[in-house]
Amino acid sequence: MENKKCPAAKKCGGCQYQGIPYEEQLKQKQTKVRKLLEPFGKVKPIIGMENPYHYRNKVHAVFDRQKNGTIVSGVYQEGTHKVVPVTECLIEDQKADAIINDIRGLLKSFKIKVYNEDTRYGLLRHVLIRRGFASGEIMVVLVLASPILPSKNNFVKALLKLHPEITTVLINVNDKKTSMVLGEKETVIYGKGYIEDQLCGCRFRISAKSFYQVNPVQTEVLYGKAIELAGLTGEERVLDAYCGIGTIGMIAAKSAREVIGVELNKDAVRDAVRNAKLNGIKNIRFFQGDAGAFMRKMAMQKEKADVVFMDPPRSGSTEEFMESAVRLSPEKIVYISCNPETLARDLKYLTKKGYQMKEAWPVDMFGFTGHVETVVLLSRKLPGSHINVKVEFGEGRGKVPLKAISERTETYKPKERVKFLS
Ligand code: SAH
């Protein structure tokens, strides 16, 4: 494979594997996962990308004014708040990079000042682009320090003239001294305020703040593997924990009896509920809240799950979640992880509590970076039998009324779905 060079490599620091041939990167990732997971079972060969360039469907740029007055956009230098100018990136979507460059070019004529983090003066802080690779839809989010964008209609018009492929533009207000990109408040100034994309034959609506995998090509590979490992027959009750906008659960719903999704982020849950409708999927319900607390309630109510998919953030899962998962005693747990270190930590717990790692598949979702995704199949050690785990709860904490769980999602769920766990 041709080895492309990145002009910002030395300063950006985003790609730890810059300059290393792709095949070699895969080898190193394989070795890393193997070292961490082989104590638990078999690690399969890593599934690499066919084309490791420009795979990112989500691109973020921070804006800054240099000492000589030049406006730049790019990334923070690692560990600092210094902006490294980036005009092209080997892993980002090229269309998104072109839009960011053109936004930079428009600022002067629209007299839009970029924000200065020290003086807290200026307007434009960041631009975030999301592109649906399958749908072609593009979202542009202008992150501003205050809510008013002068001549916003003309700005949008000028931007659309350069990029008619943009389908929605939003203003997000971030007036805090923070390293978070997006603030709370959001206004749609063009289009529907979200994009749609397709994965594994399902359509998904994606909001600015919802989590959506950044590499859709490999996501299909990853989800495909996760579903295959679950070996669904159509009879199962499936739990999709840390479900985001409901992707895995919805794909699983086609071959399961029933799916329950749980997710903390409100916007993502709202997307998930609408996504189920969009796809005409009726055997799925979503709950908003902490996955650990939710699982604990399920376990206390002696609920059942045959298969648990869990896809926690980089920090991994929690003991509360896993303890309850073990009490629910599903036949299979499919753990999808973007951090092999926390995965190994959690596997240590689960394998001590009656589960066995059957196989682990590393999947490369993030070429040129040091990150690696892994999907693991765990099976209950004694099929057909329940595992007795001693779990202690405080005095008087008996069965929690079912309402307690359903209340969390009332705002998001269509009426007929409010009743939970019949
Ligand atoms: N399965 C989804 C999302 C995975 S990312 C997908 O493949 O697209 C991890 C998700 O966990 C994020 O959506 C994040 O908002 C959510 N999350 C983080 N902490 C959580 C918690 N304590 N309880 C439930 N969800 C949580």
TrEMBL record:
Gene Ontology BP, a term? methylation
Q: Which domain of life is it from?
A: Bacteria
Gene Ontology terms, MF aspect = methyltransferase activity
What keywords are assigned to this protein? Answer: Methyltransferase, S-adenosyl-L-methionine, Transferase
Q: Does the keyword Mitochondrion apply?
A: no
Q: Which InterPro entries does the record cross-reference, listed alphabetically? A: MeTrfase_TrmA_AS, SAM-dependent_MTases_sf, U5_MeTrfase_fam
Name the residues that bind S-adenosyl-L-methionine. Q213, Y242, E263, D311
Active site (UniProt): C338
UniProt protein name: 23S rRNA (Uracil(1939)-C(5))-methyltransferase RlmD
